[in-house]
Amino acid sequence: MAALWNTRNLTMADAPNPFQLPNITKFKIALCQLSITSDKNQNLDRASRSIRLSVEQGAKLLVLPEMWNCPYSSDYFAKYAEDFDNRDASPTLSMLSEAACCHGITIIGGSLPEWDHGRLYNTCCIFGPDGRLKAKHRKIHLFDIDIPGEISFKESDTFTAGDQPTIVDTEVGRIGIGICHDIRFPELAALYRKRGVDIICYPGAFNVSTGELLWELVQRARAVDNQVLKDRLCHHKFSIVLTA
User: Fold this and answer.
1) Which SUPFAM superfamilies does the record cross-reference, listed alphabetically (predicted)?
2) Which residue is catalytic, options 60, 134, 136, 139?
3) Known catalytic membership, residue 180
């Protein structure tokens, strides 16, 4: 797992004071909404154009949605998955790396299906302005649901769960990463807050049945839990939680 922790050992004394006024440096965050098709190359082209347009509008941090290089379906995950250790066989990672380097920005790469030693993961990759892969987060809390007459879906039938939280120091601050259903678990956000993150980022793709009921609610819950600010974009969803 390529999760990056700060080399400094953080203690309770390092935890931010939730009642202290924030010292905020202004910068623009781009949340890239994408229309996904079954054509992988078309998805990559749309993401590339969206990144370019965001940079032209001054974005310094860019976030893509969950599973944006393929339709969110078990029929596609394995087919579209890439081996991140083999760049020649990973066009999605290559595009993100080149875009980050070309535009000099930090990219939270949403999430992608990743092959690793015969296992499939739902993985978010973070690239720095130099185009290097700074960290990756494998979705820890897989989404299994069965609502009779509405939806039945089990990520655990396809994906292997990640087992590490992910914190990465970037040009715009220290970022904690989660993916979609990870936001439902307050312990992860609390851990990130304790370890001094500036931003908690949750690329997501909640389904219609549960998204309308839960997405706004859990964002507010995580914001109240940790005394942070939040922002969002619906449909292919994101939660950007900015700490005070």
Assistant:
1) Carbon-nitrogen hydrolase (SSF56317)
2) 139
3) yes
Secondary structure letter of residue 82 according to DSSP? B
Set 66, 82, 114, 155: catalytic member? 66
Choose among 94, 17, 104: nearest CA to 58: 104
The yes or no reply on domain 28-226 and CATH 3.60.110.10 is yes
125, 180, 230, 237: which one is catalytic? 180
The residue assigned the tokens 């700074």 is 134
Q: CA dist 90 to 113, 114, 125, 243, Å?
A: 11, 10, 12, 34
26 part of the active site: no
Model confidence band, residue 31 (pLDDT cutoffs 50, 70, 90): very high
- The 10s digit of each residue's pLDDT in 151-191 is 666 787 899 999 999 999 999 999 999 999 899 899 999 99
Residue 50 CA to residue 33 CA, distance in Å, equals: 8
> Taking a C-beta distance cutoff of 8 angstroms, is the pair 128, 168 a contact?
no
Dihedral (C-alpha) 194, 66, 29, 58: value to the nearest 10 degrees?
Answer: 150
Domain ranges of the chain: 28-226
Q: What gap in Å lies between CA 25 and CA 55, rounded to an integer?
A: 18
Q: How far apart are CA 18 and CA 34, in angstroms?
A: 35
For 76, the token pair is 């596609």
Rounded to whole angstroms, the Cα distance separating 112 from 45 reads 15
What gap in Å lies between CA 109 and CA 146, rounded to an integer?
29
